[in-house]
Amino acid sequence: SYKPMDAFDSMTESTFIIKPKTKTKTNTNTNSKSDLAADGGYLTLLQGQEPVESMQLRKRLFAQLWQPLEEELFTIEKQVNNIGITEVCDFVDSSYGEIERREQGQVARPFAEVSAAVTFAGINTGDHGKLFQSLQDQLLERGHHVALLESQYCNTLPNLQRSLLEQMFNSIYADTDAGPSAFGGTKTVTYDLGLLQLWWANAACSGKKAVVVLQDFEGFAPTVVDDFIRIVGGYCDAVPIVLVLGLATSYECVHQSLTKASISMLNVERFNLQRSKQCIDTAIHRLFVQGRAPLCFGAEAYKSLLDQFLLYSFSIAGFVKKLKYAAMDFFYAQPLSVLASMLAPNAAVSACPVRLNSDQVELIRMQRSVQRFLERRATENGGNAYVRQALSDDDFFQDTVLLQMARALVMYRRSYCLGIDAIVEIQSMAPEAMQKPVRTLHYYGVGQQFDDCTHWKTLLAVVRRMKTSEMTLLLQKLCRLVDGAADVDWDLVADGTHIHELIQGAAELLANPDGSAIPDVLDNSEPKKRTRTRTEMEHRPFLLFDKGASDAQLNALEKCCEAVEAMLRACLISYHDVALNEVFYYRHS
To answer: How far apart are CA 410 and CA 408, in angstroms?
Structure first.
């Protein structure tokens, strides 16, 4: 016969005893490789020859380096989003001046409008929850009462008003002992906004606003929102209710969803909360350009990262996840990730805390960039003995050669940051059509050689067309940038070109073009006569723009153009020319 499900004798009603596995005393070593593999998934690399100390260091480095980067990314996102959130909060503060004027005895307007802030939050719907939560927190800090509504819980008008009243009451009585029960004694409908009017008057909420946030406006039924606006219009004369409509598509969605009668009741102001591009630009500049992250991205991996963000999601959370996946892949699968312990955010270089075995040292020697580094050292005086010892002595390689390559990498990153900042300053003086965001400039820097980049050539053409006053302003900006990079050892980068002396000499020459001598760092050649041939115009186009300058001033302008080009060429060299780039520039796309 059929037995109902409730009467079925299930196996889950039985009792099972699971005894823990007993470990022998010989297997109590918590630092073993098997424990690390079982605890965090760190496997033994180098075909099982990796020391357990290196495995522990990889695990420790991932925990130490990723958490600060994640916190900094969230801080950047909060700082960028606060710009738009502050504008919305200021609008809420300034809304419903009619009620305040009536309380002061002044004449109010003959009709009431519902203040509404239409906010465009973008297509990155995965970030909307955090964005509107930040908006709610700031509004609560300013003393307003906020109800954050989601379409999945407000599919009907009664559900919407019930959720609104519940959140409002919790906000009103959060800091008091009184509650909705104080007005009890009668049976009322739980979704009647008349309760809000009654409780608002008794709660002494003068000067505050009741803010209703519809987080995903497109998800609400148009008829529900339309009826809700008409109901709110009947109470906004007594309760200052401010609507915040969160849009993911476009502002036209409001006109397409609501009727003309409802829209006419709204006092609408538009705001843009979609600032993902600004957030990504700031994050890329701090992490990759300034080198705060020990792991950078190679050209292909960086292009894949940008394409995924710009062409698909626009999501900051997705961007952070991809960075974390890259960091996990680096520390989980790269045996040389222990070298990240040698790099510090303050541009300092220290020795690796663990000794590398012969397999790890040999793996470093096999990198093509390391081989080029040793080949260049072989051409110097005494270089053959240095290279011979670096290839035969593992201790000398780790204590001396590895430290030199790590320091050269750090100096390259500092000079690269200087080059990108110089490009940004030049762009600020160029036409708007020639200005590119930092994310694009960094892509040009890691993806192309200097002579192959069209954008660099375009900006150099802008520099060659500058007048004396514009060149003076540019050199002042570049001098400030160079002074900020005083810790860069130019003997390790840019083929020994001392950028500080180069820019300072160009500024001095431009300030005193008729001086007795040209600085040694610049080409000491005789001033060229003023010419108007086609060939001279191609190489010296500033002759057309600064006709009142003397021959000495024109010569100074030409030398300054050469100095700026030499600076950019020295700072924006490809990372492929730097030792250990195979380790610290992520290549998997």
So the answer is: 5
